[in-house]
Amino acid sequence: MASLPDLAADLISASGRASEKLNLPSLQSKMKSDPEGYSSELTLIYKQFKSSLELFQQQVALNFTSLSGIASDSTVAKDLGDRAMFLAHVTPFYPKELAQYPNELVRFLESSARNLPSDLGCMWHKL
């Protein structure tokens, strides 16, 4: 599994827009206005979401079984939240590519909502 920074680098290089910094709100706007032109970016952001989801679930499992009391890394939850919100906003523009996304999100929330940091819990209610 690729790390999130590696996937971000892939996103920039795959798009052919290496001079643009990864900026999710800007990318979201561009994808809404030209869905076909940004399909490779969608694929990579979706992969980032799935990686973030997996990392978050692993982190929760480790914290649950850990006796050392190591706190979870909030950046993993934030990355997951950022990508989930991004995908929620572009899903109407990519109905085929993101057909499974709503179900994945519901399954995640059903199984892991209580493990979300409180600041992200509010964000999930907006989805």
UniProtKB/TrEMBL annotation:
Gene Ontology terms describing biological process: protein transport; ribosomal large subunit biogenesis; ribosomal large subunit export from nucleus
Subcellular location: Nucleus, Nucleolus
Principal location class: nucleus
Lineage top rank: taxon: Eukaryota
Stored InterPro entries: Sda1
Keywords, in A-Z order: Nucleus, Protein transport, Ribosome biogenesis, Transport
Similarity-based family: Belongs to the SDA1 family.
Function: Required for 60S pre-ribosomal subunits export to the cytoplasm.
PANTHER family: HSDA/SDA1-RELATED, PROTEIN SDA1 HOMOLOG
Protein name: Protein SDA1
Organism of this sequence: Sesamum angolense
